[in-house]
Amino acid sequence: MSSPPNYQSSSQMGEAQEHLDEMTCMLYLERQLERTRALEVSAHTQGCDSCRILLRAMERESRLLTRAMLEEEEPLPARIAAFQERVHRSMQWVWMVVFGLSATAVYAMYTTYIEPWETRLETAGFGGTNLVSLLIFQSAFWKGWQSMISLVEVLALLTAAGIAMAFLRRRNRRGSALALVLTGFCAAFAVPPAAATEVRKGQIAEVHKDENIKGNVYLSGEHIEVEGTVDGDVFAVGKDIEIDGHVTGDLISAGRTVWIRGQVDGNVRSVGNTVTVIGKVGKNMSFFGDTTRIDEKGSVDGSVMMFGSDVNIEGRLGRDVLFMGDRVTVNGAVGGAIDEKGAALEIGSRAQIDGPVRFEGENEPAVPSGAKLASPIQFTKHVHKKEDVGQTSAFWAGVLVVAFAVYGMMLFLVTPSFVKESTHAAENIGASLGLGLLVFFGVLIGSVLAMITLVGLFVGFSTLFVWIIAVYAAQPVVGALLGQWILGRTNETWPLIGRMILGVFLIRMATLLPHGWVIKLAVVFWGLGAISLALYRRFQPPAPVQVPYVPPPTAPLTPLTPAGGAAAV
Predict the structure, then answer these.
(1) Which is the most buried residue in 8, 19, 224, 377, by most CB within 10 A?
(2) CA 119, CA 352: separation in Å to the nearest integer?
(3) Residues 6 or more apart from 511 whose CB is under 8 A from it?
(4) Cα separation of 128 and 146, whole Å?
(5) How do residues 207-243 score in pLDDT, each as one tens digit?
(6) Plot region of 563 (φ>0 → left; ψ -120 to 50 → alpha; else → beta)
């Protein structure tokens, strides 16, 4: 039931005359009055000059306010613009210093860590012209994937097409998306057919003694046996793995125990508890686990690289030993060098080592009289110097500050709007920490599981790559927020970069404190959650913007209804 309009009294001309108040005029202009009340206000303004003038004045104010809210950002004054240009030009020397420090940090990291390891890997039989080719083109699992082109690449191309459509659907027309899908199908069907591949799984997965498999074989189960001949690579995942037959390619396995009583012409790459070689391995062995044992009847023609607990060599090893772990025991023949960093080195009386022996540990090994060594053992005792550790920590802390500052600068220059959105999302600390914890472990576990299933190999690798980028971007995002808390807020790119560098410096200094890893982990969760929150908000459909009604300058004052239509005459 409508109530009568509000009026105010005025007695300036000697008699009472009722007028509309400002609230009623505002509700009328915003179409908030009920139908009956809008008719009364419209009729009143037709005969009252004072109310009509008031209504027109409020209409102009509403129009100007709406135009101000919808207008784009005003250009900077000429003086401020010229100052900003001078500051931008003066940043060139800052770029030179930053890139100089970055090059120094990269060179120091390469000469201190990467180059020595590359040299050690080359001596262990993993040769290569550079580290990239060593890790990619000569890695443990590269050769095996060549035989899965038909299945994996088709799924990978289709998955890539789907991801591209999901990211580009809001920016491309329907024809572009269709062309992308058709291109993916054409590339998939143009792939040549793959070599023969066989998959066997069950409680006991085996290759029988009289079998001869041409191509690769994938075995999974609790107990795995290979007694026949496999003219290709063997991929085995299980509890107990036994190779009693002949494998002409590589053996790539993951299990509790691996027994090699037959012959493997290629490499052996394994992860698990124990690997025992009683037969023959034609090339190299690499193992991540507890114990590697070469029996007195066994032989490995190449090198052995291991990260774990024990290496026991009683048989014959053709080349080198590269070991990092607990103990190396040699009571057989080693045709190359031994490079160990561990707790102990034991040399038996029947040992014969044709190359140099370098051992870094706590106690110098004893050499029995019957052992044959090409040269004396080069022993380096562990020396813990706190002052050296402190200086090294400070140096690498500075290197990491520069590295994260450069990385954050690249992010702010390449994707300025998204980084600003992430910095704004980081202000919600609780939601960012919770979401970051979930994304950190959830995405990591999901990508690893996708890669294990083989079908989602491309999706798993892509997700893991994006996850790594986001984890390293967490510190610059949180650093930008901390810098804004200290120096104040800004929307300009270069001032925001300066605040980010200040925040990253404070974060890296905080991580040097006792239990600084807790701070580092909290910052990673915080920044990763903020990035995920910003990404979620970006892909949400935008809420419709409600623009207030602005009547034209010469529009007549027609009666308004709650729905916005004119009253019937």
Answers:
(1) 224
(2) 24
(3) 397, 517, 519, 520
(4) 20
(5) 998 899 988 998 988 899 999 999 999 999 888 999 9
(6) alpha
